[in-house]
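## Example pair
The file below holds two records. Each record gives the amino-acid sequence first, followed by its structure token line.
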Amino acid sequence: MAKPSSRTYSRQSQDAARLLGLMIRTARIEHQITVEELAERAGVSRGLVYRAEDGDMGCTIGAVFELASLLGVPLFAPDPTSMPAHLAQAEKTLSLMPRAVHHTRKVVDDEF
């Protein structure tokens, strides 16, 4: 199956990516780090840093999270030390749920 040439994203997803990009740019400038320095530290290209700061939805989530982490931008929790507790809670909740979702099949009544 061919990959679609362009993908559409919800407004909320676009806003979240844009917000994270702005937070990354703000932190980079506050720490007086150039795009080149950040790219080198993260092991990515300068172009990816620029795209991440612009909220480009095509950037890999791992690369964007790494940029944010290197700059101290909070991800999911204001305090990075609380992340393990949030992770443990999410894993505990998920362990109580079914592993997969299956829709029940409707029985077709084809007797006339």
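Second record, same layout:
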Amino acid sequence: MKKYTTWLGAGLLLALGLGAAPAAAQRPAKRAQPQPSARGAFYTGTYPNLFREAGYSQADIDKKVAQAYHDVFEGPSRVYFEVGDSMAYVSDIKNQDARTEGLSYGLMVAVQLDKKEVFDRLWRWSKKYLQHQSGPLEGYFAWSINTATMKRNSEGPASDGELYFVTSLLFAANRWGNATGINYYQEARRILDASWKKDGTGGVYNLINTKHKQISFVPVGEMYNWTDPSYHLPAFMEVWAEYAHDGHEQFYRACADTSRVFLHRACAAPTGLNYDYTEFSGQPHTTRWAPAAFRYDSWRVPMNIAMDYYWFGKDRDWQQQYAQRFQGFLRSKGLATYEDQFNVDGSRPDFILPAGKVKKLRHSLGLVATSAAASLMSPDANRLDFVHALWNDKLAPYPDGYFDPYYDGLLYLFSLMHLSGKYQLIKPQAHPLPSSK
């Protein structure tokens, strides 16, 4: 949950932030690359590297990703904090909380980059302080906790947290096995099995609205009956179908297909922009904290669609034209100047959703990052312009001093990983590979 305001009824506390100022453009000579296979990397084992295609050396690409990881997890502006000798958390520092969004993103970064100690620390902390061990919410996670007082801001879950927790745990089981101190597969199954037991008793439901085969915004109360387009990751549903082995394989595949159709509707505007919250039909859902528009949650949608494109390639034609519409709109607003909130027709919204306590439109690094990820599916000859723009941007304070290494930082790191071929669908390995720390 990407959070900006407060949900008191079910215990939501929403807040967020943005990014960095672009650096002067530097472009190496373009390197010729073969076009990606019409089949996704799940089938071919080959992942695109658009930075190489854009002319950057592999050594510089590796350095760029390593530096981003350092900045987010280890540097003076890090959002990762170790606790004792076995735990750690990721914090949205400006909001003084840790949330399942950031914790589960941290797990995904760790398993992708083979950081087992980081993964294990984050999982232990999340399980200890956020996972419900009994009651109607058993197996689910409280989505936000105040890291100063260690009091939960909400007992309720946010479905995207569990979505990333399960997928990251399945990848961890595939990469490291289940005999190194944590049974990752068992932990993933516990979340899934608990979800399938929830039938509405006490107002608690499955993470996925089983009637609509779409992920819920929150699997509690009336929020079970609408969704967030950025929670729709058909690639993750395909992963569950392959590796969860819980007897719901066909349901998860149906959910992946349903999400693809849903995204057609949610992103139908000529601009390619989507509302941050919608009905299951893709029509806007206005919340009590903001009217529907393209806002912070929405930034993730192009990155998520790109992942599905290059992992599975089951909806290539539509995904390509979506990328053209989306990048074409941003280009029309100025490649170095487009702002970060819009009405879906491309106009400026009357209501500007604050990022934390800051209410200001800006050219945000998080959106620069995810719009570059859209280049993975764009057939346009000039799609690498967005890749160069990301390469030349940086995770640093804006000229006015605003800085959010949490949301901007994690989207920046994710997008660098996608564009460098370092964000992969991790398959079971016969012998676990040696792990870095």
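Notes on the second record: The CA atoms of residues 112 and 423 lie 6 Å apart. The radius of gyration is 20 Å.
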